[in-house]
Every structure is written in C-alpha cells, then in structure tokens.
Design brief:
Layout lengths: L6 E2 L14 E2 L1 H4 L6 E5 L5 E8 L2 E8 L8 E2 L11 E3 L6 E5 L8 E5 L9 E2 L9 E5 L6 E6 L8 E6 L4 E6 L5 E6 L5 E7 L5 E6 L4 E7 L5 E6 L6 E5 L9 E5 L6 E5 L10 E4 L6 E7 L3 E5 L2 H13 L4 E7 L5 E8 L2 E9 L4 E7 L12 E7 L5 E7 L9 E5 L15 H8 L3 E6 L8 H5 L8 H15 L3 E11 L1 H12 L6 E5 L5 H5 L7 H10 L6 H10 L12 E6 L7 H13 L4 E6 L9 H19 L9 H10 E2 L27 E11 L2 E14 L2 E10 L2 E9 L6 E8 L2 E8 L2 E8 L2 E8 L11 H5 L9 E8 L4 E17 L2 E12 L7 E6 L5 E8 L5 E9 L1
Parallel strand pairs: 32-33, 32-34, 34-35, 35-36, 36-37
Antiparallel strand pairs: 1-2, 3-4, 4-5, 5-6, 7-8, 8-9, 9-10, 11-12, 12-13, 13-14, 15-16, 16-17, 17-18, 19-20, 20-21, 21-22, 23-24, 24-25, 26-27, 27-28, 28-29, 30-31, 31-33, 37-38, 39-40, 39-52, 40-41, 41-42, 42-43, 43-44, 44-45, 45-46, 47-48, 48-49, 49-50, 50-51, 51-52
Helix pairs in contact: 11-12
Length: 881
C-alpha cells in the first residue's frame, strides 16, 4: 500500500504567509483506531485487546509486561468481527460471541490464553440463536451470565455457564420482556429493568416466582439501575423522576419498599449525574463523574484521589479514565485523552508508582498540529445559557476568522470536550469551529430538553444564531464568512439556517438532513404508539390543524424559494428517512433560481455513512465547497479510491430531472408474473435505537379463503401484540379490506368502488373514514412484501402505485425501484436477491429497503429507518418459511 503523507502543500499562495500548521491529511484525522477494548486479566498475567487480523477485528493477547509487538492473535475470525469479550473471574478464559460458520448461529466461545493455538471451545452449540454475553459472576470465578433466545426469538432467557466444564443452567425464562438483570454480590438474581407498553421505564423486584414493579418513570424522564450496594439491601439508580426534579441524581432504592434517597447530584447544579465508579475489590463507591464543560470527578476514596492527582501531573491537560484493572486493583489500564490527544493507554502500577505507555490511538497523527478546544457560554434569545465548544485554528490570530457552525445530530444528544476529528479538520483548514449544545441537548437537565419542545426551526435555530452573533461581537468571527454544516438533525439545522436566516450564512452543507418535518413525523410505525406520542409532544402533532401548520412553516422544503445561500446536499439513495424526491425537487429549484448548489448521491448508503470511502469523498467535496465561499484552504489530494468515488457520487444539478410531485405522478396498474402462494413466514425482527436493541416476534400468514387471499401479520411489540389483516383479490392483489388491532385500538376499512370507508377507534375515540381513492390499492397492509415479490422484478425495474394514508385520509403515491442485486444471509439461509427500494412520493416514513429472493420471490429481509424514533432502525430477517 502506498505510504500516505501527513503533510501536504498549501493551495493558495495568499495563505502561505499565515502562521497555520501544514494541512493534515483528512484520512489520518478520521482513521479508525487499530486497537480497542484493552482489558487486563483479573490475575494480571495478560493484557487482551481487539485488533484486525487479516482485515477482521479479532482478540489479541500478550503478557502484561511484554511490549505490544509481542502480542499474538488469540482468535482468527474472518467472517464476523469480534468487538466484545470478557475475562472469567479467575483469568483462565476469555469468552466471546461469534458466528463461526456464517450460518446465523451466534454461540458463546471460550479461549484459554495459555493453550497456544488450541481451537476455541463452543460453550453453547445451538442453532438458530443469538447469544448475549452479560457479564462475569461476582461470586464464582468460573461463571458467566448469558442470554439465549432459543425458546423465544424475541427475548433472551437468562442462563449461567460454567466455562471450564461448558455446563449451562437456566436461571430465568424471560416472559416479562426484561431488558436488564441485576445480581447482588452473593450472586443472587434480585432485580430487573424493562420498558413498559406505554413507554415507561420500570424497575422490578425479582423473587423466585414473581416479578414486582417497585419504581417507574415516564417517557420524558429517566431511571436506570446500576448495581446493588455492597450490603445487598438497596440498588443504585440514576433518576430524574418527579415534576419538580430537573437534574438526574444518583439514588439508593429499596426494592422491598420502593423508597429511595438521594446519594448525590451535581454539587454545582449544572448538569445531570454522569457515572458512578465502584471498587470491584471492596464494592465501595470510589468516585462519581459529571460531564460539564469538561469532566468533573468527586472522590470517595482519598487514596484513589491521590493516585489520580499523581497521574495528572504525569499526563497534564488530559482527562483520565480507568479502562480495566486487576482483581486486587494494583494494576490499571488508564486511558488518557484530550482535545489534541485522540487517546493513549497506559499501564499504571500502583505499588511501583509507574506509568508505561502501551499504545496510542492514530499514532501517526502529529499531535503538535492539532488545535485546542475551549468551552464557551452565551445567552439565548430568551435567556437560556448555551454551552458550546470553540476550536480555533492553531497559530492564527483569533480575530475576524471565517467560522463554521456544526450543530450535532439527534437532536437529543450533546457534544463533549475532547478530540473531535471534524472540528480538527476545519480548524486546520483555517476556520473557527463552533459546536453548540443548543436547547434539546441532553445532559443539562429536563428543563433544558423540554425547552426545545415545538421549537424546531425557531428557538433551537436561534440558539445557533446567537452563537454566531456572540462570536462576531467579541471579534472572533468575520460576519461575512460564516457557514453551517451538519448531518441528520444537524443537516436539518443547516437547511433551516439557509431558509430561515438567509443573510447569516455564506454557505451551508446538509448531510442526510430532513427537509420536510411532516415526512419525518409520518415515519413512526403504527405499532409504536407510545413513541409516536412522545414525538408529537417533542416536535408537533400532524394529526391536528395546528400541528400540520407547524410542520409546514418549519420545513425548509416549503421555504426553499427564500434560500440564497450556496448549498451542498448529501443524500443516500437507500435513505429510508429522508425523501430523495423532496431533496431533488429542492436541488432542482435552487438550480433554476441560479442559487449555487452541489449534490452528492451515494447509491450504497442509507441514512448515514457506512462506507468510509463515501465519508472521505464527502469531506473532500465539503472542504472544497467551503473554501470557495469562506476563502479557506483545502486538501485537494486524497486517495485514488476516494477521488474516484467522489466522481461517481457527484450529480450535476444541471442534468437533474427532479421527480414530479405526488399528485402529478402517473399511477400504474401492477402487472404480475405470479400470484401469491399459501404459506407461513416467520421473521426475526429487531429495533435498534440509542445503542440498545429490542427483539420482536413477527410472522406473516398467507391463506386462501372464499376465493380471495387473506394475509395476516402478527407482531409482538413493546406496545403489545399488533395484528394487521388484509383481503387481497386473486390475480391483481388489489386490497379489498384491512383490519388492525393493538390493545384497545382498532381499524376496520373497506376499499371498493374507488372509495375507502370504515372507522378507527383509538384512545377511546371513534372516527369515521370516508375518502376517494382514485383507483385500486396495491402492496398496502398485510401481505404487501409478498405482493411485491409477484412483480416482474429486474434490475432497473420501476413503477408507481397507490397506498392509503390513514392519518390524512387520502391516497399516497409509492415509487418502487430495483436498485440492484445482492447475496443476503439471513437465519433462513443465503439468498440471491433483488434489492427493492420503496419510496413514498411525499413521506420518507413510507420508505423501506426490501430484499426479494430471486428464486422463490419471497421477501427475505427488510430495513426501515425512522427519524421520528430518533433514528431507530427496524430490521426483519426471514427465519422460517
């Protein structure tokens, strides 16, 4: 591989005299860490870590005192990366989960680091399962806890496994949709946590034959159990429950009585409780942390505090965390990081009082060229304090600088102090980089999050505007050279900035940002009613006239005629969250009004970058785009692969034929090549959101009844059992009837004579439905995926057809396109499949990717992404047919 140079020449001669560091190769700034997840064995003999072997992340091992060069791969997986593992309490084995044969069976394996090249032992040996590795037992050095979903594919039953003998014992069947289990220090199962059907978090006392709720908090609050206290009587819980409570605090909860008492909240009353660190040797609370402008620690152990202060003198300016320690806590692996330090890992010997460097993250990156990140504060238009981070170009005077605003995505997350590759990239190019934690950002209490309710495109946007004005007033920023760049919600903010404050920004870069909020809100699946209500409260309720008016006025797509800011738009062809049709209508409109616009369309991406080469290509384009309008500098060179990819995904707006609006789209009568077949299809479905996964049992049943097809879809969701049934006409598969039921909510509809009639009962209220359709419905309701498999699918095949929008009581137009072919592996096997993209002409919530097996024409996989569920991804894979 050709050696990459870190320093490249400056482009503009007029900038050569400025005291800026040389340009840093962006591929170095965004390089994936080669080594992660380092852990010491409990006895201190070994250090393990994850590092690629032949391109696939595997577990490596070395003796603790040996140099990193002496490490060897302990596992040699080539099919599936190993990202997580744990040591048994006695340090004799490492346990991990993987799919050895690529057959969809993820079992638990154990490796003996002292056994040389001996093969790993399969401790579970099951088929059709996905094992979850929970942790090591506190009272048995040979015991680990795992979850197995062989009884119920959706929920994992709790087991214990003796690693030395590979014996497993069922502890508890998970019949209550439990997400987390908790043991006391004696190894007794006594506590659990789950999400209720209405979205509440529930904390539960576990007894041999019963599970009892003892504490809960609402969907707008948080309550998370951590562990039992050392006496085993109470549980540490982080919570902000209560109408008068703002900041989350650490509490102790009595599982018998449900009573709790506060242990600690932020002494400065600024931020939510962060983390609690316990001594695994004594079970005592060692210290607590809070994420403010920077991390703050409060020690309970004075000896530990002294050790940290000594290390801070040796590693000045960096934040320290203990990543791993031995059982006696005499050896620690300490992670050190900072704004100009991506990360270092040190071995700390408490007895010898020595620090030995083990490895650096992105070791070839020159730290001396990086810029410092400073916390700043300013007032919002209505008096809120906004915390933000400002990264200034190293070496340049902090006066009249071109400035880039980067609002984070989410929006319910936050930026933190530390190494940030995006901030470093653009600071190195000569910009002041502002990263605000605008209202709605988490970590600053409930009131700060609630202040964003209903404020998309208004006060949330004002918080960004006030940040720019603050920097202009203090002389840091040149008001004529300000740009905004963001992805997801940050992309929305970039579009909103261009549309609603057209004189503020000289340029804007939107990456996967929703331009139509009605589109976004429509993406909540019907089965997730609790989440729908949360989103309606946080954003707007499009089911009301006020809510629909709100979404219209806050959607940049509806204000595109006001945009005069040069704009770059980045879209994924497979994005099931942002409508390509809406994006291209906006790009074409800007082109026609002679507003400078650039457009990137990645055919192999959905909502977000999964391929590093696409990310590098986008960054190269964004650098050049911003340099053009902000008079900055950029790195023209890059890898040949990234340059070639940029050429492939760049769309010339002048040649763009934007899709027609939905009402102008020509609707086609589907021409089928086959009819449905009776069958039972079971799917393994999971919902991934906020770093957590929830499994769902789903099944589709196709039956022939009374001269027609009856399709029934059953889903066991956190909101209860959902049943969707449809009657389809033989030969055409037009939908004649549809009925849905979930709890007390029901829907009953008939489609005939070009009309939809029926009623909806929800929340105790009944609503009659009567609407014109304009023609037959296709691939709507249960059996829709099987219906699509009956089409004459081929690469490049396209068509449009009708569905019925129950919320708005009118026809909606769907666009279908076969984007290519792929080999897809699901629990039911490996299939050569067509990749079918379904796009709602008006609503990105009506988008999905479907893999249809070429031979059987059955749907074997489906993926949807929901903006209204915070970017939740729903994946369904065929498990049985």
């Amino acid at each position: 591989m050709k050696r990459r140079f870190q320093i490249v020449l400056l482009l503009a001669p007029m900038l050569a005299a400025q005291p800026l560091p040389p340009l840093i190769d962006r591929e170095l700034l965004f390089a994936t860490p080669e080594i992660t997840g380092a852990q010491l064995s409990p006895d201190g003999k070994y250090m393990a870590f994850v590092k690629p072997w032949k391109g696939t992340p595997n577990i490596w091992i070395k003796k603790t005192g040996d140099p990193m060069a002496a490490a060897r791969p302990l596992t040699m997986e080539t099919r599936h990366a190993i990202s997580g593992y744990l040591w048994t309490g006695d340090g004799k084995f490492l346990c991990y989960v993987t799919d050895k044969n690529g057959d969809g069976n993820f079992n638990l394996y154990a490796e003996d680091p002292s056994a040389g090249t001996a093969p790993a032992r399969d401790l579970t040996g099951l088929k059709g399962v996905t094992i979850q590795l929970y942790g090591a037992a506190p009272n048995d050095p040979d015991l680990v806890y795992i979850g197995i979903n062989d009884r119920d594919r959706t929920w994992h039953d709790l087991y214990k496994v003796k690693v030395a003998s590979a014996g497993k014992v069922l502890i508890r069947e998970n019949t209550g949709q439990i997400a987390s289990w908790f043991f006391d220090s004696a190894g007794r199962l006594r506590f659990a946590q789950r999400v209720a059907e209405n979205g509440d978090q529930e904390l539960l006392r576990v007894e041999p034959n019963t599970i009892t709720k003892v504490y809960s908090c609402g969907a707008y609050e948080t309550c998370t159990a951590l562990r039992f206290d050392k006496d085993g009587k109470r549980v540490y819980v982080v919570t902000n429950k209560g109408a008068t409570v703002n900041l989350a605090a650490l509490t102790l909860l009595d599982p018998q009585t449900g009573k709790s008492e506060t242990v600690e909240s932020d002494p400065l009353r600024r931020v939510d409780f962060g983390t609690a660190v316990f001594s695994e040797r004594t079970d005592d609370l060692a210290f607590t942390t809070y994420t403010d402008d920077r991390q703050r620690r409060y020690f309970k152990d004075k000896e530990l505090e002294a050790e940290f202060k000594w290390m801070e003198t040796k590693l000045p300016g960096k934040d320290l965390t203990v990543g791993s320690s031995t059982r006696d806590e005499q050896l620690w692996l300490v992670n050190a990081y900072g704004d100009t330090e991506p990360g270092e890992t040190w071995l700390f010997d408490r007895q010898a009082h020595t620090l030995a460097l083990q490895y650096k993250v992105q070791e070839t990156l020159a730290r001396g060229a990086l810029a410092s990140m400073q916390p700043i504060h300013y007032k919002s238009s209505d008096g809120l304090e906004i915390s933000a981070y400002l990264t200034l170009p190293k070496g340049a005077p902090a006066r009249n600088l071109p400035t880039l605003v980067i609002p984070h995505g989410g929006p319910w997350t936050r930026d933190v102090w530390g190494y940030n590759a995006l901030a470093q990239l653009f600071a190195n190019r000569g910009y002041a980089v502002l990263m605000p934690n605008y209202r709605g950002s988490t970590g600053y209490g409930k009131k700060f999050v609630d202040a964003a309710n209903g404020e998309w495109g208004r006060k949330m946007q004002d918080d960004l505007t006030e940040g720019v004005q603050y920097l202009v007033a203090r002389g840091t920023t040149d008001a004529k050279r300000v740009a905004i760049l963001g992805s997801a919600y940050g992309g929305y903010a970039a579009l909103a900035g261009a549309a609603f404050t057209p004189d503020l920004y000289r340029a804007a870069v939107d990456v996967f940002g929703p331009s139509n909020l009605l589109t976004m809100l429509d993406s909540v699946p019907p089965a997730w009613e609790a989440l729908r209500q949360v989103m309606y409260a946080r954003v707007a309720n499009p089911g009301t006239p006020e809510g629909r008016a709100w979404t219209k006025e806050r959607s940049p797509a509806n204000e595109a005629d006001k945009i005069k800011t040069p704009l770059m738009v980045v879209q994924g062809l497979r994005d099931a969250q942002v409508s390509r049709a809406e994006t291209e209508q906006m790009v074409a409109g800007l082109r026609d009004r002679k507003v400078p616009v650039e457009y990137l369309l990645a055919g192999d991406e959905g909502h977000g970058f999964t391929h590093p080469v696409n990310h590098m290509a986008m960054l190269a384009a964004a650098e050049k785009f911003l340099a053009k309008y902000l008079e900055g500098r950029y790195q023209p060179e890059g890898t040949t692969e990234a340059g070639r990819r940029l050429a492939e995904i760049t769309v010339d707006p002048g040649k763009l034929n934007a899709p027609k609006p939905a009402e102008e789209a020509a609707l086609e009568v589907p021409k089928l090549v086959s009819d449905l077949k009776p069958g039972y299809y079971r799917y393994q479905t999971k919902v991934s959101m906020g770093g957590k996964e929830v499994g769902i049992n789903t099944a589709t049943i196709i039956e022939e009844k009374d001269g027609a097809w009856t399709a029934t879809e059953i889903a066991e969701t956190p909101a209860g059992t959902s049943i969707d049934s449809a009657v389809l006409e033989k030969g055409t598969l037009a939908v004649h009837k549809r009925s849905m039921k979930q709890g007390a909510a029901t829907v009953d509809l008939e489609f005939s004579g070009g009309r939809a009639t029926g009623k909806v009962v929800m929340n105790g209220q009944e609503r009659n439905i009567s609407a014109d359709l304009g023609g037959p419905l296709f691939a709507d309701a249960a059996g829709s995926l099987q219906s699509i498999g009956c089409l004459p699918l081929a690469e490049g095949f396209t068509m449009t057809y009708r569905n019925f929008d129950l919320q708005r009581q009118r026809t909606k137009v769907m666009r279908l396109r076969v984007t290519g072919s792929e080999t897809v592996v699901v629990p039911a096997g490996s299939f050569e499949a067509f990749v079918v993209q379904i796009v709602g002409a008006e609503s990105a919530g009506d988008q999905a990717l479907i893999w249809i097996a070429k031979e059987s024409r059955q749907p074997v996989k489906m993926v949807t992404v929901s903006a209204a569920m915070g970017g939740a991804t729903v994946t369904a894979e065929l498990a049985q047919q």
